[in-house]
Amino acid sequence: xxxxxxxxxxxxxxxxxxxxxxxxxxxxxxxxxxxxxxxxxxxxxxxxxxxxxxxxxxxxxxxxxxxxxxxxxxxxxxxxxxxxxxxxxxxxxxxxxxxxxxxxxxxxxxxxxxxxxxxxxxxxxxxxxxxxxxxxxxxxxxxxxxxxxxxxxxxxxxxxxxxxxxxxxxxxxxxxxxxxxxxxxxxxxxxxxxxxxxxxxxxxxxxxxxxxxxxxxxxxxxxxxxxxxxxxxxxxxxxxxxxxxxxxxxxxxxxxxxxxxxxxxxxxxxxxxxxxxxxxxxxxxxxxxxxxxxxxxxxxxxxxxxxxxxxxxxxxxxxxxxxxxxxxxxxxxxxxxxxxxxxxxxxxxxxxxxxxxxxxxxxxxxxxxxxxxxxxxxxxxxxxxxxxxxxxxxxxxxxxxxxxxxxxxxxxxxxxxxxxxxxxxxxxxxxxxxxxxxxxxxxxxxxxxxxxxxxxxxxxxxxxxxxxxxxxxxxxxxxxxxxxxxxxxxxxxxxxxxxxxxxxxxxxxxxxxxxxxxxxxxxxxxxxxx
Length: 530
Prior knowledge:
Elements: H1 2-17, H2 35-39, E1 44-48, E2 63-68, E3 74-78, H3 87-94, E4 104-106, H4 114-121, H5 149-158, E5 161-165, H6 168-188, H7 193-196, H8 198-205, H9 221-226, H10 229-263, E6 268-272, H11 291-312, E7 316-318, H12 333-345, H13 361-373, H14 392-402, H15 424-432, H16 452-466, H17 489-497, H18 517-528
Parallel strand pairs: 1-4, 1-5, 5-6, 6-7
Antiparallel strand pairs: 2-3
Helix pairs in contact: 1-6, 3-12, 4-10, 6-10, 10-11, 13-18, 14-15, 14-16, 16-17
């Protein structure tokens, strides 16, 4: 029982680090220049969880007690305006605004999930009746935000910029808290979860693992501890709840973006992916393979889903999976600065292109979508150059921006791609994910014109790399100009099945034809479902 209590205490400590510790916020001061003139943002609205609230080892959001629930627990409400320390306050400061009545407001609070944002902005959209994850004493449904719904909706309508940062509580904190209480309840009921857990089952086949306990793994890093028999019994409860949380997120996240867009069709909406606090957690002693690298791969499908869904609703996605974090599993001061830089770099003014009037309605819609999401800018302040042919480097850069400009772990060694090239990181990322293998083993040929076959292949491989639910489509009759052995045969089949291309005629795909800027953004728009 002592070991069980220690394991549970460790888990609850992580939960509490993300929730109730309250110390005064620190003021953040940024550079002094004409910020409103630079960014053109008059009204900024933020939604998010404890990351938006600025939590880490240095500071916690401020709370006030507003009552007591039926079980005698204090009902705490996070005080708006206590988030200056995090990225929300810093982003506001960059734009010449602040969270204390000067153009910026945060409707964020610790523990917030996607469904909580939806409840905050749309009446009757969420049913909490069977929500077993909500076991915090300051649960969202009782914290008073519902009473402010009309105020919140009005703020959304008037916003020039909206940021949304939720998801980690859906797949981590909520399931973690539920599992901690459920685990303890089962132990108190006399169940032997250590023998029933993942490692307990392995022990029946490999008895030599029987001495791998929470005590003996204390020097093996957090991952080693999680592999102890006791902890694996906890994981047996926790992991299914994680997958359940992800399924709920996939259902609810599009509803949130749809409602934000319904309330405000023109605001720039920046969505922020889920970061990974585990980069410093070693598996067994060394740092060659880390828990963080494994967690990156676990988070990739979730962040890719957020990126694709964001693009569908004309939102700009920002990848933050690699920001620096501390032991509170929140960004450090440097991490919040990094997030601020990434977010403000994506803020862009609305552009009206004068050279797209004679393009098809679909091309015009796709071009405007690409500009709104920041996937590509115009070739000048008022032109898009829709008929200009794209290079291979440009196409991968568009795809990289769609993915939120994720960092590559190491630079690519193509001899014709240099660190100083503005597409270098995009190419390195694409090579790392298997989206491109180059034109030879040593060259990428970045300035060669990108063909229709190549862009479809890039999209196909991106989908393979980021979507665990990817399935090859059934065979179709095919186009007359695609040979049975062509490398782009499967990608074209997939693209047709998913409505990304219809070919240049009913019988021809035109694989070797160069892809124009208008065609490229239309392929991307169809891919995300615009």
